[in-house]
Amino acid sequence: MRATSVLLGLHLALAVAYENNNNQKPLGNPRPNPKKKQPNIVFILTDDQDLHMNSLDYMPLTKKHLIDQGTFYKQHYCTTAICCPSRVSLWTGKQAHNTNVTDVSPPYGGYPKFVSQGFNSAYLPVWLQNAGYNTLYTGKLFNAHTTTNYDSPFPGGWNTSDFLLDPYTYDYLNATYQRNHDPPVSHPGQHTLDLITAKALSLLTSVAASPSPFFLGIAPVAPHSNVDASSLTSPDANISTVQFTPPIPLARHAHLFPDARVPRTPNFNPASGPSGTSWIRRLRHQGEDNVEFNDHFYRQRLRALQGVDELVDAVVRRLDALGLLEETYVFYTTDNGFHIGQHRLQPGKECGFEEDVHVPLVVRGPGVPKGREVEGVVTTHVDLAPTLLGIARGEGDGLEFDGEAIPLTGEDVDAARGRRHEHVAVEFWGLALNEGKTWGGEEERVALNNTYKGARVVGEGYSFYYSVWCSNERELYDLTTDPYQLRNLLHPDEKAHVPATILGVSFDKVVARLDSLLFVLKSCKGTTCTRPWHALHPAGNVLNLKDALAVRFDDFYLTQQKRVSFDRCELGYIVDAEGPQFEKDGFAYRQGTPWYEWV
């Protein structure tokens, strides 16, 4: 279908031209490692790529080079389903409530918030440099990293960089890149995916002969929507002036997959009734024209991903040609998932449903089993920083992560079963944005009060998602019986579906345990995030939900525990809006009041 050899030749030609035009020495001075015992790392991070709409099935080169030659982690999750907070969590190993970067733009998020929180000198590339790595990056780093603030300050930790900059990050045919400390350069008429492939290949070639190991981050924007955000340069601009359209594929891919359409899963535009809670439950059934446009949106995403597929092919081939492939780890994931039509939602993300938080993670490299799919081992984005630092064998320097290293070898994966955390702390603040058409008018562009805290729990014989919204509405899905999350068992309209028992105990007892788990997770720090049951049971006799369901703990969970609640809805993380909190020492507090005064 595609002339791969011709395309590869084009990529190589672009790379040579790029290298000739950008013959600069890398910035910085990583500590050399003459024996080069540390492996190299390539980290490919796409933008808004789905797992539940089968996008990987349309990427044969990624399957050939990464999935077939590596391990696919089938239960990997992001912790915040939007770009910048998710990326900051990924690179710091901290939940968004601990970074306080909770949005894509100020005052609650974006690159300026990342800097003001002190992370420009305390995130993965800085730690890797301290471990002797040459650090390189091209593509999108963070939102609100712009043509006006790119040097205020320059992002720390990178020896060589070539960043995409707002407001042109998502403009597929008019991207602006900014290399090292040079001024930004716009590329009107050139496709961003060909540009980033050339840049990535150039960066690989530039470090091939170095005695130091390297970390190369590659972050294409596909399959994110195409966005014309040029209006944001106006002082009167707001989100309603930003124009979202389906992604724009490379011209050579524009004809592909003419019959593809969003998978018609049971939760796709359900006619039988609404699902979820809050604003989602009020969504209307989508009409025929709406569904047809959303299918087109889906096809454009698949077509845009062909450029990423070719990027993967070009990078792996270049690693092989340079003799570096066998000593290099290659990670492939995305910042968050995406929905189109599920639960009657228009194209977008920002929800706690599986489509938005359950995302691809594929790893190939030394000691990683080939062609293996890992199930029964939960991994999250906050696990990636400790994983990568562990590969680098860098000194921890007292670092505290909210995640733990992902098992990479077959032996470590097997050992992790039953011993690793079984939960994901899911959280979100602020708006939900419709990136498709506004079929009911501009009032459907933004949903307010999309602030919630959730816990995704996947254990032996059970699978739940429990969340509490800032409106204090609640939702619970039993994904073993309701895998498409159609029945919110805590909504008054779903009483007929509420089982008398789950896992051999009464329904209310399971809910109480999940609420207490979320009570810890919503403000956890460090090991409390991976060992929340220990915070509730310091004796160490409860390791998972099944242990917590023991009858001797009924009174503790049903009558002694404070419930998760919000005092009000906010667009960002403001602690006094988020109700009672839990501290690592076992004390919960409400605006400084010990638990024993208000339980």
From TrEMBL:
Keywords, ordered alphabetically: Glycoprotein, Hydrolase, Signal
Enzyme superclass (EC): hydrolase
Domain of life: Eukaryota
Catalytic activity: an aryl sulfate + H2O = a phenol + sulfate + H(+)
Residue stretches in coiled coil: none
Gene Ontology terms for molecular function: arylsulfatase activity; glycosaminoglycan binding; N-acetylglucosamine-6-sulfatase activity
Signal peptide positions on this chain: 1-17
PTM remark: The conversion to 3-oxoalanine (also known as C-formylglycine, FGly), of a serine or cysteine residue in prokaryotes and of a cysteine residue in eukaryotes, is critical for catalytic activity.
EC number(s) per entry: 3.1.6.1
Any one of the GO BP annotations: phenol-containing compound metabolic process
Domain Sulfatase N-terminal, first and last residues per copy: 39-392
Modified residues (3-oxoalanine (Cys)): 83
PANTHER family linked: N-ACETYLGLUCOSAMINE-6-SULFATASE FAMILY MEMBER, SD21168P
Family: Belongs to the sulfatase family.
Protein name, as recorded: Arylsulfatase
Species annotation: Schizothecium vesticola
